[in-house]
Amino acid sequence: MSESRTQDLSDSSAEARKPVRSGKSSATIYDIAKLAGVNPSTVSRALSKPGRVSAKTQKLIEDAAAQLEYRVNPFARALPTGRTNTLALIVADITNPTFFGIIRGAESTATARDYTLMLAESAESADTELTAARRMLTTVDGLILASPRMDDARIRELAREKPVVVINRQVDGVPSVVPDVNKGIGEAVRNLAANGHRKVAYVAGPPQSWMTTRRWEGVKAACEWSHLECVQLPSSKPTVDGGRQVARDVVASGATAVMTYNDLLAIGLMQELQAAGVQVPDRISIVGFDDIFGADFTTPALTTIRSPMTACGTEAAALLLEVLHGAEEVSPALQVETELVLRGSSGRLLASGHPA
Amino acid sequence: MSESRTQDLSDSSAEARKPVRSGKSSATIYDIAKLAGVNPSTVSRALSKPGRVSAKTQKLIEDAAAQLEYRVNPFARALPTGRTNTLALIVADITNPTFFGIIRGAESTATARDYTLMLAESAESADTELTAARRMLTTVDGLILASPRMDDARIRELAREKPVVVINRQVDGVPSVVPDVNKGIGEAVRNLAANGHRKVAYVAGPPQSWMTTRRWEGVKAACEWSHLECVQLPSSKPTVDGGRQVARDVVASGATAVMTYNDLLAIGLMQELQAAGVQVPDRISIVGFDDIFGADFTTPALTTIRSPMTACGTEAAALLLEVLHGAEEVSPALQVETELVLRGSSGRLLASGHPA
DNA sequence: CGACCTTTGTCAACCGGTTGCCAAAAATTG
DNA sequence: CAATTTTTGGCAACCGGTTGACAAAGGTCG
After folding, report:
1. Quick one: pLDDT at residue A25?
2. Cβ of residue B28 closer than 8 Å to a chain A Cβ
3. The pLDDT of residue B51
4. B223 or A116, higher pLDDT
5. Residue B97: its pLDDT value, please?
6. pLDDT tens digit string along B278-293?
7. What fold does the segment set A14-72 form as a domain?
């Protein structure tokens, strides 16, 4: 039942191709060494360092490894080297569709590069986030933080221990991937202006969100450019429910077009307006942010400024891998483009909106 | 901010609270041993095996550990023991909202029990799924497969190496968590019957899906019980688009109520019917499955049979942990209840539906 | 007070790779 | 063909915990 030196047995019978070992524990480089008749360290070199071993020895070892169905023990490798071929991704809320794309993008890039992704969520809590980050940091090669809730100082602290990339945020000295909101916002505001709107309301996200500020500033700038009036309205929480609650304020503001911090707010707002008999888009146009899953389920379908979340995930993982593979200088803040996705919730103003 | 013996030190100077070590690498049990004046193996016992060490030594060691901000090196621990405190979860499609709940449930249970969750997706491919499973299996203590696409034999093969739990599937000899569809289906069909419907169409999912068969059988049985006619219609794919495509067949079938394999199909179907001028629910009632995120964004909101996906994830993780912690006998197939969520897409039949 | 049983702590081997150092072997060169 | 350089492979230490075997110390009892 034991390994070694089956090589020169002609593999006549069917079980000759079965791995020689029978126990459930997997083969080690020592088994390979015995089978191939070389030293374990030679096996180690053949399998990790390329070109450090003669071609025929290499072949001998690879064949033996294949025969034994050898798979490297990640822990044994990680112990001396510290390398784990694992990345961590922490998101604020697993059920928030904004993050789905990020998760998928990061996962696919990681897998493609033979890394494994570990996922954790912070449940929107800065403390939980930090705890999770600390815990995972001991196990992974690098960390991706998507829309982190903790403060800059802590992020930098983590970044001193292992490479960190942040998404939807900028932190000095930490590489990041952020959507460049201006293009999408510009398109949206120009479209609103062209459709006769003169006043735009921006429904803000959580005050501590870095992104809501960027978006508001983008909206403000684009409105100035197009000579539109604009006003910011706070929201209780960035969810469908929060969107419902802000509907009264929106109507009271006299704006005929609304842009919201995210699509969830937009959807809730639309539901509430429709329930109150306010036609969308005839009386009020609505533009969301992100183009989340389900944004086109509504009637009318939601016009929104799409952030390429999958690309964010992909780029963040790629950036992290670059750093891990020794790139000294990486672009500190990678921008990805946003674009307007025009659907039914925005359009020409019919009933003249602000006669007062 | 820091733990350990800062209590009786007046925390005068700022660096008094800093850990004693200066380098970036973290403390080991040897550092603790030196600081506490005991042998490293004593430290190991104090920190893992309870009651194996005298109370005062225990305290000494714990204080030293806290002072050094010691955190165990998972690799060093995993190497001799094989335990990693890590679970793997493989889902068919990260962007399919059906899995969000599962992911969140599993993640929260794992974290609560001090395990970490590793996530991978199979992109709906049985091969990718198997590859991912094999790769992760070397690294984790156990594996959760959500709606696996590979065949029973391979699942059993994996289960021989490490504990496995499947969700939305039953495999002989492998513990599983499956929604019991009958309750929800029964509620739905009774409701349809009470609203005057006489013929129900079931839009099926992918033929290889274990679940679509269960649901069809449930629908068939419930319809028989309520003396309703029922018919099964195939779909091209279980997505919004697939739902649109099946709309013609639905109308042609003469059914006045439709139940679909999942909510995506239901949403697509509703969009297409409305586009064709067929009133929902006045002419055709629609009932989906799962109650995914966004099911209530549509107009009318979608009536659906909710599967408690979060509970599935929670239960699966808990089951797996039970097995890992030595429970010999675990219930082979855990059932979770489903329930009807009544919204606007189903209701009383107005125009008499099948006069032909 | 000595025999015997616990409790507590120490020693050393081990998990499975990696890697610096060195010697043997092979290839190159004069 | 010997001398020198370059390859190649072997030895052994190391990563940081865990654990069985055992000794020392402490406690109980006749």
Report:
1. 62
2. no
3. 73
4. B223
5. 85
6. 999 999 999 999 999 8
7. 434 Repressor (Amino-terminal Domain) (1.10.260)
In this predicted model, what pLDDT tens digit does every residue of A193-240 receive, in sequence order? Answer: 999 999 999 999 988 789 999 999 999 999 999 999 999 999 998 989
Chain B, 196 to 235: residues with Cβ < 8 Å from chain A are none
Choose among B178, B143, B177, B141: nearest CA to B157: B143
Q: Report the share of chain A in percent with pLDDT over 90.
A: 60
CATH of range B180-308; options 3.40.190.10, 3.40.50.1110, 3.40.630.10, 3.40.50.2300: 3.40.50.2300
Beta bridge partner(s), residue A90 = A120, A145
Structure tokens belonging to residue A343? 């659907």
CATH top-level class of A82-179+309-335: alpha beta
The region, left, alpha or beta by phi > 0 then psi within -120 to 50, assigned to residue B353 is alpha
Per-residue confidence (pLDDT) for residue A277, from 0 to 100: 95
Q: Same CATH fold, B180-308 and B14-72? A: no
- Contact criterion met (CB < 8 Å) for A116 and B103: no
Domain boundaries, chain A: 14-72, 82-179+309-335, 180-308
Q: Decide if B297 and A293 are in contact by the 8 Å CB cutoff.
A: no
User: For B237, phi and psi rounded to 5 degrees?
Assistant: -160, 150
pLDDT at A7: 34
Neighbouring CB atoms inside 10 A of B196's CB total 15
Q: Which CATH architecture has domain B84-179+309-336?
A: 3-Layer(aba) Sandwich (3.40)
Q: What's the gap in Å between the CA of B97 and the closest CA on chain A?
A: 8
Neighbour-count burial of A322, counting CB atoms closer than 10 A to its CB (0-12 exposed, 13-18 middle, 19+ buried)? middle
